[in-house]
Amino acid sequence: MNTDKASEILSPAFKAIASDAATVLAMLELPASAAVLDVGTGEANFAIYLALEGFEVITGEPATDSSQYANKPWEDSARKLGVRDRIRFDAFDASDMPYSTDAFDAVFFFGVLHHVEEKLRDAVLRESLRVAKNNGAVVFFEPKPETLERVWQTDPSHPEAADPSRYAPEGAKLESKTTGSLMDIYIYRQGA
Ligand SMILES: C[S@@+](CC[C@H](N)C(=O)[O-])C[C@H]1O[C@@H](n2cnc3c(N)ncnc32)[C@H](O)[C@@H]1O
């Protein structure tokens, strides 16, 4: 299914999200068999995009998150698009992930880091690099200023964007920073 059709079924926002996601997938050139982790399920837009692209996706968020951005009815959306069976949900906190070292070819945070408590962000960066394979990618999508301006019109309490470099461990390699249509995109490379 193409993203136009998917956004008709989900929401117009999905098209813009998919555009930023496509930018990154083109840069990463992951094989179809890649092990991918989507941190911060939310509405699962990003997990669904990855599943539509053919990946088997693990996604998760803390079971205890009672914010308006968590525990959303994403399974219905995934079913509507025929990709529910390609998405596995694990409840976890990204500051202490239940995965082995070197488990994933790519770890994605789409619109997530700024929702993580400030005191946990150092650990989240450390953990995401730990679970990435050698040469694996850790990708943060954080809202551009104009995206935030739009979000604040409906949610004035929405947090400011987070700059991952403030929380990255010493020696972590920022491979690229790209401006997408909605998000600023930071790609870290494990072991580079
Ligand atoms: C706006 S939603 C993300 C949108 C989602 N990625 C999408 O594509 O639709 C923010 C997410 O961050 C998650 N989050 C906040 N703190 C977290 C933490 N410590 N560990 C993992 N996820 C966290 C929330 O539970 C929520 O799922």
Describe the 3D structure.
This protein has one domain: Vaccinia Virus protein VP39 (Rossmann fold). Helix 3 (45-52) links the parallel strand 1 (36-39) and strand 2 (57-60). The model has no long low-confidence stretch (mean pLDDT 96). It has helices spanning 3-9, 13-28, 45-52, 74-80, 121-131, 145-154; strands at 36-39, 57-60, 87-89, 104-110, 132-143, 173-179, 183-189. The chain is an alpha/beta fold. Helix 1 packs antiparallel against helix 2 (13-28) and helix 2 packs across helix 3 (45-52). The chain binds S-adenosylmethionine (SAM). S-adenosylmethionine binds next to helix 3.
Briefly say what this structure is:
With 192 residues, the protein is an alpha/beta fold. It contains six helices and seven strands, in the order ααβαβαββαβαββ.
Keywords:
192 residues, alpha/beta, Rossmann fold, globular
| Count of distinct structural domains | 1
Bound molecules: S-adenosylmethionine
Give the number of helices.
6
Q: How would you classify the helix and strand content by structural class?
A: alpha/beta
Q: What name does the CATH topology carry?
A: Rossmann fold
Radius of gyration: 15 Å
Q: What overall form do the CA principal axes indicate?
A: globular
The CATH H-level superfamily is Vaccinia Virus protein VP39
N-to-C series of helices and strands: HHEHEHEEHEHEE
Q: Strand-residue fraction?
A: 15-25%
How many strands appear in the DSSP assignment?
7
Averaged pLDDT: 96
Largest β-sheet summary:
7 strands, mixed
Binned, the helix content reads: 25-40%
In the CATH scheme, the class would be Alpha Beta
End-to-end separation = 35 Å
Please give the order of strands in the largest beta sheet.
3-2-1-4-5-7-6
> Would you identify the regions where 5 or more consecutive residues have pLDDT less than 50?
none
